[in-house]
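Thread: quick sanity check before group meeting

JM: Hey all, I'm pulling together slides for Thursday and realized we never actually wrote out the predicted structure for the chain we discussed last week. Dropping the sequence here so it's in one place. If anyone has concerns about the input, flag it before I start.
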Amino acid sequence: MAECTTRWYLIAVHHDATSARPVRGRFAPSPTGDPHLGNAFTALLAWVSVRAQQGVFVLRMEDLDKPRERPGAAERILRALRWLGLDWDEGPDVGGPFGPYVQSERLDLYEAAVRRLVEAGLAYECWCSRKEIAVVSAPHPGEEGPRYPGTCRTPDPTRAAARRAQGRLPSFRLRVPRGPIAFEDGVFGPQRIDVDAQVGDFVIRRADGFFAYQLAVVVDDAAMGITEVLRGEDLLSSTPRQLLLYEKLGLAPPRFLHVPLLLGPDGARLAKRHGAASLVELMERGEDPRAVCGALATLAGLARDGERLTPRDLVARWDPARLPRISLRIDPNAALFRTQVA
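JM (edit): ok, ran it. Output follows.
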């Protein structure tokens, strides 16, 4: 049996006066609805972190999930973020040297990455359906479904020819090495996650041609020179898969910082059912964006209750060490909201 070793990824990227690589951070919303307070919390902290390091802030629209896209959502997102006081140096509406800044306009880059991985033997065609995987996998799958058992890891030309004759197309999976993957998160500290044990070889392009988020985000962040990714804690578990893709594609990974999620009073992720207004609704009913910003900053440990602040006011206060490391329950119906321990 092959020995399992931990794969360490040293990915902390810092900028100082002597660095030749300025900090480049980003916020990458999906136009599947109006931005809510949880989106605003992440966007605000990502912006403040970059501005505190005198870096470049990029806005990218991740619109690959076309069936869930809402008409006009992209424009409402941009308008609401500007109302909150955020700006960006590059983005779909302002341009920049690394465009386009809309994922659906970058499909050729994702296809080239898949082809490169396949040609190098690092990814392979998979002819398994979800039903077939469920039948041969463990009876108690994880949150992301059953672990892929590696059925197609060894090519079977006869099976592939039969599937093609049926008019089926393959998906493509990355070959995942055995053993845990370790990295340092800028908020939650040392992480050690075994992708092979939990997920197995994962899909980078589906049979219908849909490119996986894991692949697209890596290709985009590398092409746009992103050095820092601050995003929600829900994506912490996907980071090892992205680190593997950075490695296999020969790309430099960014520094990762994951921030806690905002939850409703019932402990579930904040949503409309909790009475949470979107940023667009707050804007249209005349709320003071400084009050919203101040309330979000209070959640992040950067302000006191009741302070009315602009994002620029937070730049001098920025300290990732002050960020909470637990999810935050909020009451969106109480004077914007009150924080509770999750």
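AS: nice. DSSP finds eleven helices and 13 strands in the chain. The radius of gyration is 21 Å.
JM: adding both to the slides.
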